Structure formats: C-alpha cells, structure tokens
Amino acid sequence: MKESFKEFENTVLEGFLLYTLLIPVLLKDEKKETVAKIVLFSFLTSLGLRSLVEIVFYIQDYSRGVMPFTNYDHRHISDSMVFLFPALLNIWLFRKTSLKLAFFALSAVYLFLMLGTLSRGAWLAVLVVGVLWAILNRQWKLMGIGAAILVIAGVLVYHSAKP
Fold first, then answer.
1. d(Cα 136, Cα 116) in Å, to the nearest integer?
2. Considering Cα of 85, then 53, then 76, then 67, what sign does the dihedral take?
3. Cys-Cys with 99: which of 94, 104, 110, 135 at CB 3.0–4.6 Å?
4. Mean pLDDT calculated for residue range 138-142
5. Dihedral angle over CA of 36, 42, 43, 47, nearest 10
6. Distance between CA atoms of residues 29 and 26, nearest Å
7. For 5-57, how does the pLDDT look when each residue is reduced to its tens digit (9 = 90+)?
8. What is the pLDDT of residue 9?
9. Cα(41)–Cα(32) distance, rounded to whole angstroms?
C-alpha cells in the first residue's frame, strides 16, 4: 500500500500537478503569440522525434527481412501521430516558402508512417481532422492539392491492380 501512494506521488503529483502549475506561472508574462509558437514547436519537436524513432524501427525491421506494410508491429505510434497531426498542418499557415517546402517533406514522411501503422481508424481520424482544419481555416489551395494527390494515387493504384 505504501508503494502505491509513493507511485501516486511520483506520477500524479510531480508529473501532472507540478507541470500544470509551473508552466502557466513561467509563461504568464509572455504574449499569446509567443506561447502559441512555443506550444506549436514543442508539438512539432515531439512529432519529429517520434517519427525519427519510428523510422529507425522500420530500418531495423527491414534489416531483419521484415518488409514495411506487412505487419501490425508499428500500430502503437498511431495515437501520438493522430494527436500531433494538427501541429503539422499549422506549418502550412506560415508564409515562408521554405516552411511550405518543409511542410510537404514532413507530410510525405508523416504519410509513410501513418500508412505503415495499418490502422484504418487512425487514417480516418487524420482524414476528418485534415478536412475540418482545411475548411475552418479556409485553405482551399491545400484542399485542392490534397484532392489532386488523392485522385492521382487512386488512378495509379487502380491501374496497377488491373491484370
């Protein structure tokens, strides 16, 4: 019983309450834009590190002879990828051309990793979140690019599956 209270103290009190009180105190004098950028870049850092670790796992699996998209070993990443997806979408809102190119490169890596999870629920969640985000932010150009890529991919898959 004593250990369970100690575990509660370690996880809940230190991990949750301390950070929920500490972060607002540290950021209270910052502008809203600065706080938003800090949160965005922390989510992007988390997404980048999570993706890098998963790519290393894919490389290790490939060296053992396990081909990508053949098993469900990588399904565990889908929850964090779905949660962090809006941070990736928000890169598109920056005006710099270099960030737009980074968006497309990171989106390609994200797409590979999401398809590799073989989790249809995660795919559906990303699709719904992406469409809602594009509609709410009035990103018609991005929706057009996405629709064009989807049509091209569909045509390629259809023609490659034909005997």
1. 28
2. positive
3. 94
4. 84
5. 150
6. 8
7. 666 666 766 667 777 777 777 778 888 888 888 888 889 999 999 999 999 99
8. 66
9. 14
Across 102-110, average pLDDT: 91
Cα–Cα distance for residue pair 132/136, rounded to 1 Å: 6
Q: How far apart are CA 120 and CA 78, in angstroms?
A: 10
Three-state SS string across the chain, please? CHHHHHHHHHHHHHHHHHHHHHHHHHHCCCCHHHHHHHHHHHHHHHHHHHHHHHHHHHHHHHHCCCCCCCCCCCHHHHHHHHHHHHHHHHHHHCCCHHHHHHHHHHHHHHHHHHHHCCCHHHHHHHHHHHHHHHHHCCCHHHHHHHHHHHHHHHHHHHHHHCC
**What pLDDT is recorded for position 10?**
67
Please report, for the chain, the start and end positions of each structural domain, with discontinuous segments joined by +.
1-30, 34-161
Please provide the size of the chain in residues: 163
Please give the backbone phi and psi of residue 31, each rounded to the nearest 5 degrees, phi first: -75, 160
Name the average pLDDT for the chain. Answer: 85
Mean pLDDT, range 111-127, rounded to an integer: 89
